[in-house]
């Protein structure tokens, strides 16, 4: 009997895909970003975006290395000038040549995991298909291999057998969140809906098996939906985030007339009834929503939950809103050892994403 157990453990350790995705608050070697260049993502409002980006890089470069993906030497020269004028420590910044479609590295980039029983990292290159919505994504789909090359890690493409044929799995980093201890958060709206279906026909059980194998998720916490204005159709990183093992910050809308009220109330109720791996209730903390942000008649996915946890810092999107202060204080209470830095994102969110969407961590 003991021999069988030993063989099973050896087989699991030999699986190159089997690993654990570290929590975002664990130490980083670097943060990956892509320089903003697609003016169509911020129509009529592109001019301030590189300067907001530079401010983000300034804060990140104080605590870790920053890798910036950029399309040309001319763009690199202009980017260096903007970063220098913004007071960025350029010795902490490395540029990498690759043309991209957009800047949302959270979704197009690799997800790094630590292999079970092994050392170092593995870069998982999920298939990226433009959120099953946009057709211009083929350049973004090359980002994971660049990240793997630079990080000097194996690059593996997660697959599933469908009708006897192996096919690559579609997954965006913004659709999941982990606590590094076996819990994973996501939404049915994003991963199980027939609208913008990433992996058509995939069942809940199949998704959970995939998360267990590739990301080390022993329990998946399914919320219902994301927030209004989100063109990804339900990403979790605008909705609820782990801030410690078994502890979740959950967006909550107090205005009963707002279209987010019912969906966020439902998510909060679901989380309040959920447990961790040991069967203990989750600790669920309410995070306020800003007043709805509109531009050109379109509601935008403004959310304080789109923060990014860096080494020694948490960068938080703010929207020149009365709820900014409360959100910053709540997030600061969750990270007593880190400086909480507000980043003005009222212009950035016109691109339908903010800080978490544009970053991808490379764990130490």
Task: Please characterize this protein's 3D structure.
This protein is an alpha/beta fold and 364 residues long. The protein has helices at residues 2-14, 49-61, 73-85, 105-108, 143-151, 188-191, 204-215, 260-272, 324-334, 355-358, and strands at residues 19-20, 28-34, 65-70, 93-97, 111-115, 122-124, 155-156, 159-162, 165-168, 177-178, 183-187, 219-223, 240-244, 247-252, 283-288, 294-295, 298-299, 308-310, 313-318, 339-344, 360-363. The protein has ten helices and 21 strands. Strand 16 (294-295) and strand 17 form a beta hairpin. The chain is globular, with a radius of gyration of 20 Å. The model is unreliable at 1-13 (pLDDT under 50).
Summarize the structure.
The protein is α/β, with parallel strands linked by helices and 364 residues long. 26% of the residues lie in helices and 25% in strands.
SS elements, strand count:
21
- 3D shape: globular
Backbone structural class: alpha/beta
CATH superfamily: L-arginine/glycine Amidinotransferase, Chain A
CATH architectural name: 5-stranded Propeller
CATH class: Alpha Beta
Biggest sheet strand order reads 1-5-6-7
Largest sheet: 4 strands, mixed
CA-CA gap between termini = 38 Å
Work out the oligomeric state of the chains in this entry.
Answer: single chain
Task: Write down the Rg.
Answer: 20 Å
Instruction: Please report which band the strand proportion falls in: under 5%, 5-15%, 15-25%, 25-35%, 35-45% or over 45%.
Output: 15-25%
Q: In CATH terms, what is the fold-level topology?
A: L-arginine/glycine Amidinotransferase, Chain A
Which residues sit in consecutive blocks of at least 5 with pLDDT less than 50? 1-13
